Amino acid sequence: MSAAPVATTSTPGAFPHGRNARLAVYAALAVLGLLTGAAGTLVQGAWFPLGLLLALAAAAGLFWGGAKLCRTKPGAAVPGAGWVVAVLLMTTSRAEGDFLFAAGLASYVYLFGGMLAAVMCTTIALPAPPVPVHKNR
Description:
Blueprint: H1 19-46, H2 48-70, H3 74-90, H4 105-123
């Protein structure tokens, strides 16, 4: 004899269930993306080999963490968009001649590596757990 599967009242997982909670998480992820992009821009130029690796690891960790937390593609895309906005705003040079990105290999690796990490984490984001048939979303 086998027992019938027991239906649980809530689906397990770390994703926010309510719409307002999900929007709050997305807003927090966007702010974290902005901060990670700004900090990574400063670190990758200051400590060349290890700073570059640290900045890329922080960006990839944020993107993958957002994907794992929300279990949706926007969970990785929102911090990626925040990261891109911060990095693009910092690529411009000022009238005094100051700039944050030098014309070197490390800057290009940071720019393209971060964008590649965001795209990779967005495309392999985990789907939400299956919803039982008798429940509608």
